[in-house]
Amino acid sequence: MAIGAGVGRAPTGKPVALWTGPLGRTTVGLFALAFLVAFESLAVITVMPEVARDLDGLGAYAVAFAAPIAVSILSRTVAVPWIDRSGPGPALAGGVAVFALGLLACGTASTMTWFLVGRAVQGLGMGAIGVGLYVVVARAYPVDLRPRALAVMTSAWTLPAVVGPAIAGGLAHLLGWRAVFLMAPALAVVSLAVAWRPVRDLGGAVETADQAGPAARRAPVAAAATAGGAVLLLSVAGQRAVAWWPFLLVGSAVLLAVAVRQLVPPRTWTGGRGLPSLMGARSLLASAYFAAEVYVPLALVDLHDVPVGLAGAVLSVAAFTWFAGAWAVSRPERLGPFLATTQRRAALGAGAICLGILAVPLVLLPQVPVVLVVAAWAVGGFGMGAAMTSFVTEVLARSAPGEQASSSASLQTSDSVAESTALALGSAVFASVVVHGVGAAVLAAFVVPVGCAVAALGVLRRGFTS
C-alpha cells in the first residue's frame, strides 16, 4: 500500500515527518523539480529582451511565452494514460529529459524560429512534469500532509522569484544570454537524480488504462492539440500583430472553447457542482490575479515614476506572501475553528485575491502612496497561496487513485486556458485604449480581472458541494 493511502502516521503511531524519514527524499525531490521549472521560467522573462534583439525576433516576443503554455496542454493529455499505467516516475524522467533538450535548443538557436521550437519543446517537458508532481503529492503523502507538500512546491517558486532574475541577468551580462539556457540542463539532471529514487516505485493506479479504444484515446489528444494551437492564436491576436486581429481573437476563443470541453470536466466554468466548479473557480481566480499583475509594475513606473527595479520588487514581495499563504493553510490546526474547513480557507484566499486586485486602480491615483499599493498586492499574493493550495488539496482528495492524473491534467489545463484567454483579452483592450494614455488603458484592461474574480466568487461555493 502506498503511504498516501494511510492516515498520516507511521505503524508506531508517530506522525510521518515531511523532511525526514521515508518522505524526506521525496520532499527534496519535489522541491528540486519545482525549482527547476520555476527558475527557468523566471530566468527567461529576464533575458527575453536580449534574446529578441539578438535574434531579431521582437515581433515573436509574446509567442516565446505562449508556445510552451500551448504545447504543455498536449503533453499533459498524453502524460495521463502513461502515468496511470506506469506511475509518475517515467513521466517525470521523460519530462525532465525533454525539458533539458528544449533548453539546449534555445541556447544554441541561431534564429528566432529555432528558439521558438526550443521553447515549444520545453513546454512538452513542462506538461509532463506538472502532472507528475501533483500525482506524486497524491500518492506518496498522507492526506493531512498534502497541503504541506504543496507548500514545499510553492516555496520552490519563491526563491527563484527573488534571486532568479538577478542570477539570470548576471549570467547574461558575463557570458551572454545563451548561458542561461545552456547551464540549466545540469540543474535538470541534478533535480531528477534527487527525485528519482522515491518516485520510481510509485506504480500505476490502474492496470487497464489502455482498455479504451484507439479512437477514444485519439479524441482528447486531438482536442489538446487544437486547444494548444488556439492558445497560440489567442496570444497573437492579443498583441494585435495582424490587421484582422479582432476576427482572430474571436475565432481562436471559440475554437478554444470547443476543444477544451474534452479536456476538463463538463460545466467547469459554468457552475457544475463538485470538481467542475473547484477547477473553474481556481482558474478564474488565477486568471484575475495574473491579468491584473501584468499592469502593476507598468503603472508604477509610468504613473508614479518608480524605478524599474523597485517596481519589480513589488512582485517579489507578493512571491513571499504567496508562500506565506500556502504555508498558513498547510497547517490548518493552527488557524482556529473558523478556518477548519478547506472551503473556508479557499474563500479566505479568494477574498484576499480580490483585495489585492484593488491595487490596480489604486496605482492610477497619484495621491495614493506606493507603499499602500505594495501592501495591497502583497495581500493578493497571500490569497493566491492560500486559495491555490486549498483548491488542489480538495481536488486530490476527491479524486480516486485512477483519477489523480486526469484530474491534475484537467486542473492545469483549465488554468492554462483561462489565464491565456484573460491575458489575451486584457492585452487587446490595453492596446486599443493606450493611445489615450497608460492610465486609461490600464483602467480599461482592469475589466478583465474584475470579471474573472466576480465569476470565480459566483461558482466557488458550488465547488465544495456534491
Topology:
Layout: H1 24-54, H2 61-86, H3 88-107, H4 112-140, H5 146-175, H6 178-182, H7 184-200, H8 214-238, H9 245-260, H10 275-293, H11 296-304, H12 308-329, H13 342-357, H14 359-363, H15 370-397, H16 404-433, H17 438-445, H18 447-463
Helix pairs in contact: 1-4, 1-5, 1-7, 2-3, 2-4, 2-8, 2-16, 3-4, 3-7, 4-16, 5-12, 5-15, 8-9, 8-16, 9-16, 10-13, 10-15, 10-16, 10-18, 11-12, 12-15, 13-15, 13-18, 16-17, 16-18
Structural class: mainly alpha
Average per-residue pLDDT, rounded, comes to 82
Tertiary shape: globular
- What is the element string, with H for helices and E for strands? HHHHHHHHHHHHHHHHHH
CATH topology descriptor of the largest domain: Growth Hormone, Chain: A
Instruction: Please state roughly what percent of the residues sit in beta strands, choosing from under 5%, 5-15%, 15-25%, 25-35%, 35-45% or over 45%.
Output: under 5%
| Overall strand count | 0
Radius of gyration: 21 Å
Helical region count? 18
Range of helix content: over 70%
Number of domains: 3
State the major sheet: none
Provide the CATH architecture of the largest domain: Up-down Bundle
Output the CATH class name of the largest domain: Mainly Alpha
Distance between the termini: 28 Å
